[in-house]
């Protein structure tokens, strides 16, 4: 793999998509043929798939044409020509045919910041019977975060395996998936984590508390997972070159069959352009997981800088998690030859001992004389090594930095940033991000003298008083597939997170960076996702029978509302219902439940009628009028309505809440509406709900009338309040950007 920075590495996991497909000698490529669920009463049968391949490729199809049969869901991996794939797509029993693609790779003050202390009241026995499935890059088994001291044998229900890996009573399952085969020398044929990402995510969710953990002294404290007694099952799908679609679905398939309780998936989008749920492996995997009572928590991707529609996890049956900041931040000072000092951000453990080094503007170090257009951004291969070596580089707005200047032998790098300085990157050399204005001043100093010099100091830890907020990178809604379903769902800490790391992976993610550490500081929606996973396990440990939708509802209706502090203009499309509050989520008062039939009704109403019998595996389930509902009536704990600017809106949502608070209780509805939207009238009928027992259900409607005036997004909320519990749902009316 080309030497890429940590940012790149994070992207492989939770974001980018290389448009590379898996090539082979002939013109066959790898596809997933998805057929829904196995017919009820029939179950797994590979012969189903053999006959499918036979009918398209003929009786004597090559032995490597049918590569794999999924078991928890009906589908298989096949090598097909484009024409064969099209024929497969046209077959009656096929829901979708998905080309294999590479997903580019997309701690723990954060729990205290969330108000979730280490000594929180726990249901230890239930927690230790809970299995967290982590689909990622594997795990570092020797980390103290995964030591099994004090753990009993795996829960009886566990059916998973340990593949070329020694499990313990903490890591109870570990498998790897690689349809393509092994050819990268950096890959290890086992669930061992060579990149660090998987260990980081797994320990944030369920790692043991480890005292005095730090990254080279930074972020020092107790690194701990949210549910340290829970068990971990690892499904490795991400390799040196990224994570492949077929393998991601294999991991969901195995995890469901193995009996995990919650799935944590900090892996990138299938493809940002997919327009239907059943062409997306995350939606498919999470759908089949939901049917078995397993909630899937996913990262909302790291492409926030692209603006709206930069998340890709849209399905209503999964949780998509945005990344919020915590109050911890790492600052790095820079001093110029003229004595002036600037403050930037990074996690810089290097010490230049206050020695001034020559400073050069990257635009003046171009390998193409007189053309600075690539060099000024310090793009790889654009810099002239001879000019850069031994100097500190000043670069303009690098979107994905961390490796710049390292290969060229620079002493350090100063990066002029055009976005907020919320995240502190780890670089393989002394480096810092600075503001655009400071960059302009450093540039003019550089141009004003014949011998410009600078030095970069070791970082120090400070506070970010604005936290929590959503930084630029965190993926945004609205929902590309169903505009009237809010995405992302909620936010959790995903910036400057300290968690376990693989000591064979460079801490900056840059090859050649020889520094190793058992703990690392990372940012990304990848880091936010396992916080929500843990919170979901925590809820489940008190309420083992709650459905995925109820757990999701509890997390969303108790979340702390957020504000658009950086003025990105995304509001709820940045943070959903707000930042999770795990302790509150255990006692939500009322919950919004939804089961398979509710999603079937929604899908029937949303144009998916052709294959409802297939995805349910029940040939009696078709989209009859009784089975067809409006998206506005899908029982979600959030309300989103897309409209046009001049249109007069009159829309009614139906919801049903279940009482899980106090048996006898009276809830009153309050709707808050910001003044700028005064022409919107939001009404709840009835606005009082009187419960006389637990588990009692009550229905209501929420009607929105009026028009949106000049705003792009009108944010409001509905709160059901009985004096003890406040059950809050975001209500968003918007004009699609
Ligand atoms: C098992 O894993 C080790 C690394 O732990 C690797 O070197 C070896 O090749 C793997 N063996 C097999 C048979 O996959
Ligand atoms: C400078 O280089 C860039 C990238 O190689 C190229 O697109 C551009 O045309 C060049 N500009 C000039 C003035 O040569
Ligand atoms: C920041 O700079 C990058 C690279 O030049 C550019 O693509 C991006 O649009 C800029 N963003 C803002 C907010 O100005
Ligand atoms: C529905 O499925 C059952 C069990 O798989 C099967 O016996 C029955 O013939 C099917 N009915 C139709 C109409 O396909």
Mean pLDDT: 90
State the end-to-end CA separation.
37 Å
Q: How many DSSP-defined strands? A: 36
By helix and strand content, what is the structural category? alpha/beta
Helical fraction equals: 10-25%
Number of helices: 16
Shape: globular
Quick one: CATH superfamily of the largest domain?
Peptidase S8/S53 domain
Low-confidence stretches: 1-25
What Rg, in angstroms, do the CA atoms define? 26 Å
CATH architecture of the largest domain: 3-Layer(aba) Sandwich
Number of domains: 4
Could you tell me the CATH topology label of the largest domain.
Rossmann fold
Put the structure in a nutshell.
Keywords: Hydrolase, Protease, Secreted, Serine protease, Signal. The chain is α/β, with parallel strands linked by helices. Helix content is 19%, strand content 26%.
What labels would you give this structure?
737 residues; single chain; alpha/beta; 4 domains; secreted; binds 2-acetamido-2-deoxy-beta-D-glucopyranose; 36 strands; 19% helix; hydrolase; Alpha-Beta Plaits
